[in-house]
Design goal:
The chain is α+β, with helices and mostly antiparallel strands. It has one domain (about 50-220). It has two helices and eight strands; from the N terminus they run H-H-E-E-E-E-E-E-E-E. It is elongated. The protein starts with a helix and ends with a strand.
Length: about 220
């Protein structure tokens, strides 16, 4: 056999890939692709978690602002704004009595909250059937002149505490429902603990970030 031909065959054999080499390359590519895909999924989960946290914070802020606006209108217009000779009373449809009832989970008051006349405003925390939070906070209004039961609308979900409202008297001390008249309430505090609906992905166990907002408003009561 001619020597040149043997050398040529050897060169051709050296230029190819063995089956073992091909399997090894595919395995390496699979591992790399798995790492890349997992990284992309983690980034997407992190992004979704961040968006959810921002959304919960924005909803909490909007609801807090609305409560504060409503409570500032509690008791307006008051009886003191009317001519005593006109015979106006707190039962008049044009006079707001201010706070009607108060608890840590619900408040009911009268005021011209939107410029359309005196309304009765109800804000309350509602427990689910399980009897424990997360709770829903609802708000309802009805014109004083109309009366009746208001239609309630959900304002905030995933609230982790039922004790949303606190009250303070004119002297700054805490209101005691058992001994104090509701007319002594001058300031109302609002505390919101709102849980994100998406868990934090950076933790080894599922944890749900919570947005906390605390504020206080002086009312005309």
């Amino acid at each position: 056999m001619h020597p040149g031909k043997i050398e040529n065959r050897g060169t051709l054999a050296e230029c190819g890939f063995s089956f073992l080499e091909l399997v090894l390359v595919l395995a390496i590519l699979t591992i790399i692709m798995g790492i890349v895909v997992n990284g992309i999924m983690q980034i997407q989960k992190k992004s979704a978690s961040d968006v959810n946290k921002i959304g919960a914070a924005q909803e909490s802020r909007q609801f807090m602002d609305q409560i504060l606006r409503d409570l500032r209108q509690s008791g307006f217009p008051s009886l003191a704004m009317f001519d005593p000779t006109a015979g106006a009373t707190n039962s008049s449809n044009y006079v707001a009595q201010g706070l009607i009832s108060f608890s840590s989970t619900a408040i009911h008051f009268e005021g011209d909250v939107d410029g359309t006349g005196v309304s009765e405003v109800y804000i309350q925390a509602v427990l689910p059937a399980s009897g424990s939070c997360p709770c829903t906070v609802q708000r309802g209004t009805v014109l004083k002149s109309t009366g009746g039961t208001p239609a309630y609308y959900t304002e905030l979900d995933n609230v982790m505490s039922q004790n949303i409202f606190t009250a303070y008297k004119y002297d700054g001390t805490a209101y005691n429902a058992g001994t104090d008249s509701i007319s002594l309430i001058k300031n109302i505090g609002i505390t919101l603990y709102v849980q994100s609906s998406t868990p934090e992905v950076t933790q080894s166990v599922a944890t749900y970030p919570t947005t906390t907002m605390v504020s206080e408003v002086r009312i005309n009561n």
